[in-house]
């Protein structure tokens, strides 16, 4: 079923002819959702002009392999193609697409993403659970006034549930737990109506899975704070619609701000679990596919509220998709208000990981500065990568030696794993993979096709890794003694003769930088091979 909702944007006035129209697509475990917004950079703000939703059940994966099934993939492709058609009809200039739980967990998830790009020309970014939670936070923060009060946010999806504690300034905890409505229904609800035994098993499992993130939330609440709770996404919106029907006799067009009381939620669960799926479908506000999974999702909400000691929550209609829009606005430098702090999340997250693994930060910052200088000086000659790729190089340079936390031996390989699975925030899974691989190849062998860690990268991403890791090698060599012996470099390339000349400027005029020169001679062959040139050096 396709559900398209067009919303009024009359609250924002003025000439809109130059305001870009952007779409965000969330490829979830249960559904494909799209929101289309008009960016009003002068405020800055965005107004929602259309929504689209189609249930595709990517979470119905092969029970033996865990792969996305051909039928689910076909449903998702069809939904995405229709989203593109709607976006085109609304003059959308850019589509931002993210994939969550089902795709990131499936062994063939990356293959699915590549198929989408090849067949539909749509780039899809797989995001981690923590990154999904962060963008949910951004979406809620854009639609709810926190008034300097901490808020608990819960988003119950098909494959996972995100729990966030945040305030007006930043998120304090970000968690993603594998207890989504589709997943739990498949594992714990064999029949409908649901018997007492199945319900008890489901409740006990959910409580066990929620224990760790809720303990983390409680540990980050400050003395005397009384948080408010906000719920987002389809399960919670459906619950709100049904409760409103019970109270007022109708399902409202919008349920933003509607309050769900835990006592009402318990009564609703007891009523719904005694029904067949067909009986649930007959209730206005519950769609055909939602009827199958609504009880499992409602149990997650009930247990979370109980464990957190919350008697009620408010519904927010903004969530992941709107958070994707906000994050895009931040990266474009369009936000200067209370959300501006979030624009530095990539830098702050990288430095946090560096601190966690005891990185020699002064050394890493010098290497990063030298690497970015080489990147800038070779732009337009040896490469054409933009600022977003430049940021990946910076992060890789800061974290390139993080593997020393595990062992000095093969520390470049340890760096790869620590970065790849360290939950860097602000980046997509593909970007984290690129960062990890750039760091991986700052020493020893160059990237090779047979290396397993390169298998999920596209041809373009492999090129980024090869070129930027070659640049990083040179930067690492230039700080061989880790004392900042070289303060600056100048690189001149002659593409006609395929020669490149690097002049380095010592911090101490009397320092010959012998060890740095030796290290550069040792490391430069891979740089020369990658860019098909000869590199010579001299002291400035």
Quick one: how many beta strands?
15
Number of helices: 18
Across the major sheet, the strand order is: 1-4-3-2-5-6
Shape: elongated
Q: Residue share in helices?
A: 40-55%
CATH architectural name of the largest domain = Orthogonal Bundle
Poorly predicted runs are: 1-15
CATH superfamily membership of the largest domain: Hypothetical protein af1432
Number of structural domains: 3
Main sheet: strands, sense, barrel? 6 strands, mixed
First-to-last CA distance? 68 Å
CATH classification class of the largest domain: Mainly Alpha
Strand content: 15-25%
Furnish the topology, listing elements before pairings:
Blueprint lengths: L1 E4 L15 E7 L3 E10 L4 E11 L14 H20 L4 E6 L1 H5 L3 H12 L3 E3 L2 H15 L7 E6 L4 E6 L4 E7 L3 H8 L7 H24 L8 E5 L1 H15 L10 E3 H11 L4 H5 L6 H21 L3 E4 L4 H12 L13 H12 L4 H18 L8 H13 L11 H10 L8 H12 L18 H19 L8 E9 L4 E8 L7 H18 L2 E6 L1
Parallel strand pairs: 2-5, 5-6, 7-10, 10-12, 14-15
Antiparallel strand pairs: 1-4, 2-3, 3-4, 7-8, 8-9, 11-12, 13-14
């Amino acid at each position: 079923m396709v559900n398209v909702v067009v919303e009024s944007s009359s609250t924002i006035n003025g000439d809109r002819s130059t305001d870009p129209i952007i779409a965000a697509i969330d490829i979830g475990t249960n559904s494909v959702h799209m929101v289309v917004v008009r960016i009003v950079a002068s405020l800055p703000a965005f107004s929602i002009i259309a929504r689209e939703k189609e249930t595709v059940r990517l979470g119905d994966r092969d029970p033996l392999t865990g792969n996305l099934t051909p039928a689910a993939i076909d449903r998702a492709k069809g939904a995405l193609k229709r989203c593109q058609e709607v976006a085109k009809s609304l003059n959308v200039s850019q589509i931002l697409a993210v994939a969550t739980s089902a795709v990131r967990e499936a062994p063939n998830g990356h293959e699915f993403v590549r198929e989408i790009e090849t067949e539909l020309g749509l780039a899809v970014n797989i995001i981690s659970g923590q990154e999904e939670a962060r963008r949910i936070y951004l979406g809620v923060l854009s639609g709810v006034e926190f008034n300097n009060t901490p808020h608990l946010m819960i988003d119950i999806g098909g494959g996972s549930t995100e729990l966030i504690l945040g305030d007006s300034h930043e998120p304090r905890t970000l968690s993603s737990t594998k207890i989504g409505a589709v997943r739990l229904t498949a594992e714990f609800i064999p029949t409908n109506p649901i018997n007492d035994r199945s319900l008890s098993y489901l409740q006990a499992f959910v409580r066990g899975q929620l224990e760790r993130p809720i303990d983390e939330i409680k540990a980050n609440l400050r003395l005397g704070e009384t948080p408010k709770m906000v719920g987002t996404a389809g399960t919670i919106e459906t619950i709100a619609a049904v409760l409103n029907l019970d109270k007022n006799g109708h399902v409202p067009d919008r349920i933003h701000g509607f309050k769900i009381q835990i006592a009402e939620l318990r009564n609703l669960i007891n009523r719904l679990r005694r029904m067949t799926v067909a009986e649930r479908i007959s209730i206005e506000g519950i769609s055909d596919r939602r009827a199958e999974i609504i009880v499992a999702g409602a149990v997650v909400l009930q247990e979370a509220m109980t464990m957190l000691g919350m008697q009620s929550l408010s519904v927010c209609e903004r969530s992941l998709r709107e958070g994707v829009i906000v994050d895009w606005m931040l990266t474009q430098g369009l936000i200067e208000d209370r959300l501006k702090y979030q624009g530095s999340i990539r830098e702050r997250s990288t430095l946090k990981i560096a601190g966690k693994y005891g990185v020699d930060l002064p050394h890493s910052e010098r290497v990063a500065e030298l690497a970015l200088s080489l990147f800038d000086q070779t732009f337009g000659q040896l490469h054409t990568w933009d600022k977003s790729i430049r940021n990946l190089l910076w992060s890789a340079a800061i974290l390139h030696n993080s593997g020393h936390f595990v062992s000095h031996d093969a520390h470049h390989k340890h760096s790869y794993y620590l970065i790849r699975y360290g939950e860097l925030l602000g980046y997509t899974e593909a970007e984290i993979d690129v960062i990890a691989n750039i760091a991986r190849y700052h020493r020893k062998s160059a990237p090779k096709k047979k290396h397993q860690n390169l298998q999920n990268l596209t041809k373009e991403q492999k090129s980024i890794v090869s070129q930027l890791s070659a640049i990083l090698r040179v930067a690492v060599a230039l700080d061989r003694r880790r004392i900042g012996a070289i303060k600056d470099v100048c690189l001149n390339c002659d593409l006609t003769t395929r020669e490149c000349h690097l002049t380095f400027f010592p911090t101490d005029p009397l320092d010959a930088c012998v060890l740095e020169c030796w290290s550069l001679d040792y490391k430069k062959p891979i740089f020369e091979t990658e860019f098909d040139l000869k590199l010579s050096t001299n002291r400035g």
